[in-house]
């Protein structure tokens, strides 16, 4: 359905406009560029809308867990609609707030830092496959591309802390850098395990290698790695209980303490965009991506609309992992800094190294049903 809609837009909107405006010799390249831009917008606009309403979902879900209501007043045109207008009200408020640059701050880097934090989390979506055909750039080194881009996000935080000319911001940046580097190593080894299991760096081929049933997905043979990757993803995004970089009680908001208005909101959006990215990567790498959980099962596997792979299953799995992000925040208190470092270096790193050997042995032995 999505492909048919895109073909209609391309054939009946873009092609006639390009043919009317652009000279014939440049029409093909211009049409291709416009088609790519349409695809990019088709990814970014729903993603940004998801980021906005993830903040609403977080406040409502944590409110229910803590026996309170959450946002329920701001609606549309006089109708409350369960507070669904709250994210839009937040955006309007932030747009009209002044951005104040501290005296002594490096103005160029101060303004550049939020962009450095946000851009990698958006650019990574270029290689995310939504089903076997819906992907913007189906490159063979997609996994390596993801690892490289997610590693760049730390620079935005470090630059923000240093450029602010504030000791609290600088301390928060150093905490965050140490934490992200620690858990980035564990995540890198976790991706190595997936690479060995699937024999490919292409995210589409990794998903295809999990075809069969829910028992063929990599969450089962890579269960410790699956848990390590998801928990490391929570730490990577500076989310509770790993949010020492923003510890209000010690650092009065940490690395972004000097930011306000839309500059602060970009950091805020980057955090939630990274949450969505980690959730969708967890679904793709370990839980079959767009594959149906009922595929290959005796009874439900024979029902066509339940067993057919499609984007709905990927969105459902991503929503489940996002709920886990929110559940963790509502449940656990913030860890101490030494506890976070110990978990990353003394627990997760040895587990991933050992499991690389285990997965290699299972692949060589062609252990059923995953590697035969």
Annotation field: number of helices: 13
Gyration radius over CA: 22 Å
Relative strand content:
under 5%
Task: Give unreliable regions as ranges.
Answer: none
- Report the span from N to C terminus: 34 Å
Biggest β-sheet description: none
Q: What's the pLDDT, averaged over the residues?
A: 89
Secondary-structure-derived class? mainly alpha
Percent of residues in helices: 55-70%
Q: Please report the total strand number as a whole number.
A: 0
Order of helices and strands: HHHHHHHHHHHHH
Describe what is shown at a glance:
The chain has helices at residues 2-21, 24-65, 86-95, 107-123, 142-163, 167-198, 203-208, 223-236, 248-251, 261-286, 304-307, 311-331, 337-364. With 372 residues, it is mostly helical.
């Amino acid at each position: 359905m999505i492909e048919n809609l895109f073909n209609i837009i391309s054939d009946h909107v873009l092609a006639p406009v390009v043919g009317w405006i652009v000279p014939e010799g440049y029409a093909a390249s211009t049409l291709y560029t416009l088609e790519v831009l349409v695809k990019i917008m088709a990814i970014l606009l729903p993603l940004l809308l998801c980021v906005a309403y993830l903040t609403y979902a977080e406040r409502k879900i944590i409110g229910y867990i803590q026996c309170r209501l959450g946002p329920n007043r701001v609606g549309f045109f006089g109708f409350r609609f369960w507070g669904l207008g709250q994210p839009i009200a937040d955006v309007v408020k932030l747009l009209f707030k002044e951005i104040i640059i501290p005296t002594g701050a490096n103005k160029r880097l101060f303004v550049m830092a939020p962009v450095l934090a946000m851009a990698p989390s958006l650019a990574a979506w270029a290689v995310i496959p939504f089903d076997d055909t819906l992907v913007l750039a189906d490159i063979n080194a997609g996994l390596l591309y993801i690892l490289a881009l997610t590693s760049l996000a730390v620079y935005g935080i470090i630059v923000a802390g240093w450029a602010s000319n504030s000791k609290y911001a600088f301390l928060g940046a150093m905490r965050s850098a140490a934490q992200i580097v620690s858990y980035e190593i564990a995540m890198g080894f976790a991706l190595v395990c997936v690479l060995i299991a699937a024999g490919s760096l292409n995210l589409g081929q990794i998903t295809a290698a999990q075809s069969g049933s829910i028992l063929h997905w990599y969450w089962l043979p890579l269960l410790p790695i699956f848990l390590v990757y998801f928990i490391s993803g929570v730490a990577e995004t500076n989310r509770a209980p790993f949010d020492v970089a923003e510890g209000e009680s010690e650092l009065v908001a940490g690395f972004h303490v000097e930011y306000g208005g839309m500059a602060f909101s970009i950091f805020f959006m980057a955090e939630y965009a990274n949450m969505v990215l980690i959730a969708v990567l967890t679904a793709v790498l370990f839980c079959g991506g767009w594959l149906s959980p009922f595929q290959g099962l005796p009874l439900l596997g024979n029902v066509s609309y339940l067993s057919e792979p499609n984007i709905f299953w990927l969105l459902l799995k991503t929503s489940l992992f996002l709920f886990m992000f929110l559940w963790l925040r509502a449940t656990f208190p913030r860890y101490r800094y030494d506890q976070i470092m110990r978990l990353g270096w003394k627990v997760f790193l040895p587990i991933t190294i050992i499991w690389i050997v285990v997965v290699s042995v299972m692949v060589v032995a062609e252990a059923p049903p995953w590697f035969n």
